Amino acid sequence: MYKSMMVKHPDEPEQPHRASLDEDETLWLDYNTARALYCLAYSYQDNNRIDEAYETQLKSLDLYETLHRTFGETFEENVAGSYVHLCSSDLRKGRDNTKSIDYAERALDIYRRRVEFQPVKVSPWLLDPLWDYADLLHEEGRKDDVLRVTQEALEIVRKSNQNRKRLADALHSSSGKLRRLEQKETAIVLRTEAVGIYRTLSIKDSSQSSESQPSAPVPVDAVARYTVPDSLMDLANDLLLVDKDADAVVHCQEAVDIFRTNLKKAPDDSDAHLDLARSLSYLCYCTFRIKEYDAAVKLGSESIAIYRQQFHALDKEFKAVENYVSALRRMTISSFYAVGLHAIAASTAVIGDLHMLIVNHKDQVGKTLLQALHDQDFLLGKHG
Questions:
Q1: What pTM value is reported for the model?
Q2: ∠ at Cα 348 (345, 351), nearest 5°?
């Protein structure tokens, strides 16, 4: 009679049918109070009021546990939802890992029992607490347990994502989590698989949207134009972490080539310009890693030229300051090691851009400008 009160984790819990009020007014009050506290905890988190979020979720949990003890399995998923939030990375930061591990294990115990009866519904709910649990175990140095838990998570990823795009998205996300857990080689395998799926979907989307089929519907699993190159850059980053620098250059170069093609198709799109600038900057860094310093300077120069042009064109609408400064920083490092005299001109351009940016972005630019000035003194002495 109370089944309609079960939540859809991690969304806001559903309201019970109004008829329940006539059956048990106390139940109605306690449930809605718990529900309000549960939602308020997430609101506090969204506003970076973490301690208040944690304490509020504890109050919600207390009410849900009381309801669970009284009415049995009806409120079990609500209890699990509170456990999941309490052991999440934001809320557990700076708190006792022992308690967070206990919350994660309790949530997993509930979901693992329920997944046998509702696999389609419950399987996705298992992923968040599994990854949080793996993080906690990693922090405790329990490597064997981490491997076991991540394996369980990956099995769920594959079983619960029949749609190809969703599977690629899940593999891509899982790769990042594994990298954090220092399972870097496995992370590369998953990311490579995700890139392969994205490529297939990108080709499919291109064929569906060709000029010969102007009115063809967009496929449900189509990927955005930046998905493949962005995933290639993430793969390049994964490869750099295991010192496969030459492979990283290959994948990053492919990302640059795709972004160039995207820009040709949409030359008036500022995002397409900024995408290319961002990829060139990262290719500059990858090229620096293989000690091709002069080539890195050339790539970096092209990147910052695009950023500079967009900075002036967009004026106050320019939102890529962090990426711009990162590109300038990479250029500074590459110029420091470059052999050719063009390194001085590149260094001068970097300093000019930093002076331009520091007017309104002092905190983001200050240290990079000081380093650039120091490096230019070195370059002048080196080539003088």
A1: 0.79
A2: 155
